[in-house]
């Protein structure tokens, strides 16, 4: 059995199928980890959802910010934005089934045997693996509840920008969601910055990539993430970043996570 992790697909279903062919992925024996942002911007979001859902338990996906945006639009609490490519999903006969499946996906996936955690954007400085998973369950619980539309309608916003264990209600859920799905840079006080989206080195001197903060935990875990296309494919210590900007003309990237094969790398350019 092989375990592969794949970066942000964002509707690039053709590139995903080519990549899976290169991997010789067999859903009967292999496992696929997907870093989130399955949909949006690319041309084939509907086909991407159907393909991955069809893999059943052979694929595990964490939610990304574009996936959450689709949920909010489908729930009727947000409007489509310029550049969104989600209409085919919303008009599909299996839309409700796909949305329900998406709503029940995890925010974080952890494999104790491989000591590997997958989260869309990264691990907030100061949170270890246990706290990360507990905070993820808070958001997962409300997304799977009858109250999920209320959460989605209040999910957007940049405040609060720093974690406080006394946060409650929507402020607490919004921060957790932002940290797990939108984080790139933080300052020395662990405040999230949402303005800077360029590669490391392009930010003001007061900011640093989240994984360089001195309070970064999970040091005994390998962290697999995506989200940051300007960062691209990167290995830094035990961090593996896999969003190499396929939807922007870059590549869709996969690595193998299991055993002694964890240095293997595959990349396929976006071809529509």
Structural class: alpha/beta
CATH architecture: 4-Layer Sandwich
Low-confidence segments, given as residue ranges, are: none
What is the chain-wise order of helices and strands? EHEHEHHHEEHHHEEEEEEEE
Radius of gyration: 17 Å
Q: What strand order characterises the main sheet?
A: 3-2-1-12-13
Give the overall silhouette. globular
**Number of spatially distinct domains:** 1
Oligomer state equals: single chain
Determine the N-to-C terminus distance: 30 Å
CATH class, anyone?
Answer: Alpha Beta
- Total beta-strand segments: 13
Fill in the keyword field for this structure:
alpha/beta; Purple Acid Phosphatase, chain A, domain 2; 5-stranded mixed β-sheet; 8 helices; globular
Quick take:
The protein has 272 residues and is an alpha/beta fold. The protein has eight helices and 13 strands.
Explain the overall architecture.
The protein is an alpha/beta fold and 272 residues long. It has one domain (3-269): 4-Layer Sandwich (Purple Acid Phosphatase, chain A, domain 2), CATH 3.60.21. It has helices spanning 13-23, 45-54, 65-74, 87-91, 95-103, 129-143, 148-153, 169-181, and strands at residues 3-6, 31-34, 59-61, 108-111, 116-119, 185-187, 192-193, 207-209, 222-225, 234-236, 239-241, 251-256, 265-269. A five-stranded mixed sheet has the order 3-2-1-12-13, covered by helices on one side. A five-stranded mixed sheet has the order 4-5-9-11-10, with helices on one face. A hairpin with a 4-residue loop joins strand 6 and strand 7. It is globular, with a radius of gyration of 17 Å. It starts with a strand and ends with a strand.
